[in-house]
Amino acid sequence: MKLNHFALLCFLITAAFCAAQIAPQLETSDGNQSAQQPTTSPDQTPGQTAPPAKPGQPAQDAGQSQSQSKDSQNSKDAKTGESGASNATSTGTSEGISKDRLFFALPNFLTLENAGQVPPLTSWQKYKAVAKGSFDPIQIVWYGALSAISQAENSEPGFGQGWEAYGKRYGAYAADGTIENFFVGAILPSVLHQDPRYFQNGHGSFFNRTEYAVSRIFITRTDSGRNQFNYSEIVGSAMAAAISTYSYHPHPGYHPVPGMNVPYVASDRTLTNTASVWGTQVGYDTLTLVIKEFWPDVRRRIRKQPQPH
């Protein structure tokens, strides 16, 4: 198994283990809180008591005062509830995208938690969200790490070794990620009127949520709110893989040392390699969706926040 494959496998196992540990503990916590909640009468809010009547004041006035106090409290609760519902309806900004980051670092702007019904993104908003994530400063570190792994494995030997080769690999990884992001998240979604955002499920068992996350590779939401085959992901990643393979990646077959008895290095610009790159990109996106599904649970656990209802 290659080093990058092993790293991704460890990443998936870690995310799955965290999610599996979180779910039962959150349910237990919610159950304990429900059991400890004191019971109150239907007409009385928790912690509220009727104000005593003043000396000489008729009982009717005391009841009226209690009613007014209750109405005022209900009004406050309603406003609070509306505010809470508004926050729970969408974790995104007014532009329909999120400010979240996976592991508090990697951009996660196209993921919405407990979104419900949200307005569709305009083409401008889709391009803006993808550009914001693709050119985020953390990507410099991310592509640098991927390039280092690739150089250590000597993948695509046409790049060679040394700092110049590392720079070529870095540029290739940055171009691969940026081109795919725009095709999958902006270009095709704008043309086909599909929504590039991931809408987290957040409920059910670990396996049901994992199944839902994996299915989003093939099923997506349209701008009108209907489910549709995810052409943006499947076709967009294939187009990005073709551009990557046949343009700036190593040139066709060559002899590493001309005139020497050194094995000929075959070209990487083949349909087989293009299909391999496409499959890798789709597999990586699938893994990312699974992580996006459970990341809010991990984040709440780290910050010791309650589970939303």
Sum up the structure in keywords:
309 residues; mainly alpha; two-stranded antiparallel sheet; two-stranded parallel ribbon; 6 strands; 59% helix; globular
Describe the protein in words:
The protein has eight helices and six strands. The chain is mainly alpha-helical and 309 residues long. The model is unreliable at 15-30, 37-51, 53-60 and 76-92 (pLDDT under 50).
What topology emerges from the helices and strands here?
Blueprint (H helix, E strand, L loop, with lengths): L2 H34 L22 H31 L11 E2 L3 E2 L3 E2 L10 H12 L3 H16 L9 H30 L5 E2 L6 H10 L3 E3 L5 E3 L1 H16 L24 H33 L6
Parallel strand pairs: 3-4
Antiparallel strand pairs: 1-2, 5-6
What is the structure about, briefly put?
This protein is mainly alpha-helical and 309 residues long.
What is the N-to-C order of secondary-structure elements (H for helix, E for strand)? HHEEEHHHEHEEHH
Order of neighbouring strands in the sheet with most strands: 1-2
User: Which structural class matches the secondary elements?
Assistant: mainly alpha
Give the overall shape: globular
Can you give the helix content as a percent range? 55-70%
- Mean pLDDT value: 75
Helical run tally: 8
Cα gyration radius (Å): 27 Å
